[in-house]
Amino acid sequence: MAWPRATHVAGVYFIMWAIVFLSLMAVRSVDRLAFLREASRADGAIVAWLPRSGPQVAFVTASGQAVSFFERDDLPWLWWREERLPAPVHVLYLAANPAGTAVIDTFQTVWGREVRDVLIGVGFVVLGVLGVTGRIERWRR
Fold first, then answer.
1. CA-to-CA distance for 18 and 115, rounded, in angstroms?
2. In terms of Cα–Cα distance, which of 65, 57, 51 is closest to 102?
3. For residues 99-109, b (16+ Cβ closer than 10 Å) or e, as one string?
4. In whole angstroms, how far apart are CA 12 and each of 33, 125, 130?
5. Three-state SS for 112?
6. Which of 19, 9, 7 lies closest to 120 in space, CA to CA?
7. Residue 73: helix, strand or coil by DSSP?
8. How many Cα atoms are found within 13 Å in the side-chain-facing hemisphere of 94?
9. What digits encode the pLDDT tens for the residues 72-119?
């Protein structure tokens, strides 16, 4: 009985990780779509910028409650500059918990994590298929 080659085993592990990342993306996407269906929209402003915390956003809900939050996104905010403050933004939030659910209404903040998980998952699928089929070993020769 011959042992499987290391690249075949690694390929199987990459495919397993691809399944994990694509599953995470699917679950987050379902949650995000539910959030978008129920979310209220408000006009707000980025009122402060803290290097490690990101933008601090203030807005007023439809019921008149003043809310301030830090955008919790883990993607870089390269396009904001301090001299542009206060900067107007649109905010999405759930009326039941505006401070805990508010996000700035941009593609990056709404879908950024899902896009990242898809890219990582597809990369793992490609590496897994190359490993299982042995094409990586052919490239090394």
1. 14
2. 57
3. eebbbbbbebb
4. 31, 9, 10
5. helix
6. 19
7. coil
8. 12
9. 665 555 555 566 778 888 999 999 999 999 999 988 888 888 888 889
pLDDT value, residue 86: 83
Domain ranges (residues) in the chain: 22-133
Q: Are the CB atoms for 19 and 27 separated by under 8 Å? A: no
Q: What is the pLDDT of residues 30-64, one digit of tens each?
A: 999 999 999 999 999 988 877 777 788 999 999 99
Name the token pair of 134.
Answer: 């042995």
DSSP conformation letters of 121-136: HHHHHHHHHHHHHTHH
Query: Which CATH entry fits the domain spanning 22-133: 2.30.30, 3.30.70, 2.40.50, 3.40.50?
Result: 2.40.50
pTM for this one? 0.75
Query: Which uninterrupted H or E stretch holds 31?
Result: helix 6-38
